Amino acid sequence: MLQAKEVTQILRAHGYKVTPQRLAVYHALARTTAHPQAETLYAELLPLYPTMSLATVYKTLGILCEVGLAQELNVGEDAYRYDANTALHPHICCRVCGRVDDVSGLSLTGLQREAASCTGYEVTEQQVYFYGVCPACREQELRDEAGQRKVH
Amino acid sequence: MLQAKEVTQILRAHGYKVTPQRLAVYHALARTTAHPQAETLYAELLPLYPTMSLATVYKTLGILCEVGLAQELNVGEDAYRYDANTALHPHICCRVCGRVDDVSGLSLTGLQREAASCTGYEVTEQQVYFYGVCPACREQELRDEAGQRKVH
DNA sequence: CAATAACAAATAACGATTATCTATTTATAA
DNA sequence: TTATAAATAGATAATCGTTATTTGTTATTG
Lengths: 152, 152
Hints:
- Two copies of one chain form a homodimer.
- Chain A is α+β, with helices and mostly antiparallel strands.
- Chain A has two domains: 1-86, Winged helix-like DNA-binding domain superfamily/Winged helix DNA-binding domain (Arc Repressor Mutant, subunit A), CATH 1.10.10; 87-152, Dna Ligase, domain 1 (2-Layer Sandwich).
- The first copy, chain A, contains six helices and five strands, in the order ααααββββαβα.
- Chain A has helices spanning 4-13, 20-30, 38-45, 54-66, 109-119, 135-151; strands at residues 71-73, 81-83, 91-94, 100-102, 122-133.
- In chain A, the strands form two sheets. A three-stranded mixed beta sheet of chain A has the order 4-3-5. A two-stranded antiparallel sheet of chain A has the order 1-2.
- In chain A, β1 and β2 (81-83) form a beta hairpin.
- In chain A, α2 (20-30) crosses α3, α2 crosses α4 and α3 packs across α4.
- The structure holds a DNA duplex.
């Protein structure tokens, strides 16, 4: 998570003005690893910035992605998610509760090179998404099964 | 690409009726490797089935995904793409022309196991997307650069 | 201090997808 | 084959995430 000073520098370097709203969106995003949607960030910021509009959140997120302070995720929901961690790393999404977590400790740079040689593309980016059931939901499922067995 | 008879069996086995429209959507999708959007399939089918509506295409694609005859892709566009090849394989998307190709010859099963052990999730699916510039667009870019040099 | 440009907020617009409703078609068994 | 019940297709409208537009405000520069 970058400091306000660094964020300011980066925005200015790309010709964008620095406003309290923009810093607030960045810090709300950088403070969490929950990969929120625009709507979630908006709801979180509204108490602090009662005049902020959802359109401003979207526009700011677009700018943050453009200048390399965030990345956009799409796990197949109806809405985008955002991540202030722009390092190359996979994400994993729980099919039960919908949470999205980072996956750290997988080396993916080899994949990119392989993909380039398979396809003839010049490969510049990649996104890796896993889907399954998170630990909390797995436990819940085990509890549910146990409960059902008692009923029978 | 499965034959109509097999598709019929699979749909019936899942309790769905088999209609000319459903077979047509499946075959239009299975015939191509371009990973079309619903709109594209609709435009392709309209001359053959003048009464078909876009809603029917969407509903049919949803059913095909549910019964395992297709999968849904999302490379970050505003619309979903669909693929009748349901085997686990990555996709690669050209940032210039937007085309989406299959990547074959990458082994991904190890990744899934690694992700499970990193996160504690039970991992059931994955999607791998690469982004870059396709061979055709790379050539075009080279030609454009050559042209610019002449002008100077 | 004036002039200019960029901005935030509000609103409307847009477009992909889904829900609803009705007439039609399919599957099934007599 | 044909009658019947259930499921479907198509038309239409609705929904919702996202983007464009407009207008008044703020910040910056000379």
